[in-house]
Amino acid sequence: MPRNTVKYQNILVLIASYFFYGCWDWRFLGLLSFSTLLDFYSGLRIHNSRSEGARKRWLIASVTINLGFLAYFKYFGFFVESFAELLSSNGLQAYSSTLNIILPIGISFYTFHGLSYVFDIYNRKITPTTNFIDYALFVSFFPLLVAGPIERATHLLPQIERPRTFEYSKAVDGLRQMLWGFFKKVVIADGCAAYATPIFSDPGSYSGSTLVLGAVFFAFQIYGDFSGYSDIALGTARLFGFELLKNFNFPYFSRDIAEFWRRWHISLSSWFKDYLYYPLGGSRFGKLKTIRNTMIIFTVSGFWHGANWTFIAWGVYHGLLFLPLLIFDKNRKNVGPVAAGRLLPSIREAFQMVLTFSLVTIGWILFRAENITKAGNYLKGIASKSLLSVPLHSGYHTLMIFIALMFGIEWLERGSNHPFETVHPKYPVIRWGMYLFLLVLCLANYKQDQEFIYFQF
Predict the structure, then answer these.
(1) I need a surface site. Which of 304, 306, 368, 428 has the fewest CB within 10 A?
(2) Which domain holds residue 51?
(3) Same domain, 364 and 379
(4) Is this prediction's pTM over 0.90?
(5) Domain boundary residue, one of 127, 161, 195
């Protein structure tokens, strides 16, 4: 586009974003449009209302309608089935008929975009934009529309409003990050899925050692899948002149659970902190209320992921792991990068990272299992005598080499925004050799039917 034509740039990218979303199911473009119009108009009314009562009514209306849509599409069946099970457990026979409701892809993400916008206006952190095109692009920008990161109007809207010109250096950096994201998705995540999926589908047929292997593979799968998507999203946005919020910061190098949650799905954690934890009182009213607020945050975070008791249990599990750090004021102990200024971690740091990864992997069993009963059976299978046996699976050694390659590169570049940000700029042969090697791996391992895990949230 010609320079100084930000209006037409935004129209072009908005059309591209709606086309992108419509390629999944064009019928849900109406829901996306309605949600966008609702929050755009609510923001204007909140800002222009003279009385506090009117401002609050418009806020409540926006929040209620947004969460109402989210509850209907995402949680209606869950509530109906849970209520029927409750009646049955008390000796009452219930006839439950649930609709086969299609979950609109990305609804949790674009709903939270709109809610953060009206919250910030209500709290007078920002003034609403009067340009509907700009706001619609903020909500529906295609790289982040279906799986985040969850952006803030304070961060993205100013970038949308100002003129942008193509910058070669940013484009190259974006392509590097995209390549790394595709490698993590196609080679690591999809490769791990080939082993983790059959193990979780029938855990009773496998030994305890194989179940451990399946859980570890799923830990690598969900990391490669979700952080890989985030890398692709951030890299794609950079091609258009946008800098999105960093969503992952090498979380498996964490030394405790608190550090893990500062590094994993950062945009969601910060969203809940700003719009739920702080309004509940945060840590301002004593230790007991801080514990209460923390458990609420983790429970809601689990429920955000889906309509299943396994997600709630996963959130509660992480909350319980977090509490000892909170109670003894150790939750901010590990803030900087691990082994800063050193090539290798200390023995203590290595032990802390292995322990944290192990605890997180146990949580992933709850996250991945179809229901609580199957999660319990999976854990029982691990605790059996067969835990000390040799894993049944074979042929995964090449995959383990690729996983080691991923973590080796990420370890060396753990202080950067993404691993290829500063990869041997003075040695083009090494640089291009790495690019081509990863590209060939992606093309050789591509499977068309492997969608991103977080598309279902």
Answers:
(1) 428
(2) 6-161
(3) yes
(4) yes
(5) 161
Same domain, 123 and 213: no
- Domain end, chosen from 107, 140, 161, is at 161
Same domain, 409 and 447: yes
The answer, yes or no, to whether residue 16 has pLDDT greater than 80, is yes
Q: What pLDDT is attached to residue 307?
A: 84
Amino acid 71 reads A
Do 180 and 210 sit in the same domain of this protein?
A: yes
389 part of a folded domain = yes
CA–CA separation, 410 and 220 (whole Å): 13
Q: Which of 113, 155, 265, 305 is catalytic?
A: 305
User: Quick one: pLDDT at residue 390?
Assistant: 80
| Residue 305 is a catalytic residue | yes
Instruction: Judge whether 319 lies within some domain.
Output: no
Per-residue pLDDT band for 141 (boundaries 50, 70, 90) equals very high
Number of domains composing the chain: 2
- pLDDT surpasses 70 at 90: no
CA 318 – CA 259 distance, rounded (Å): 12
Q: Are residues 208 and 151 in the same domain?
A: no
Does residue 52 sit within a domain? Answer: yes
Residue 27 within any structural domain of the chain: yes
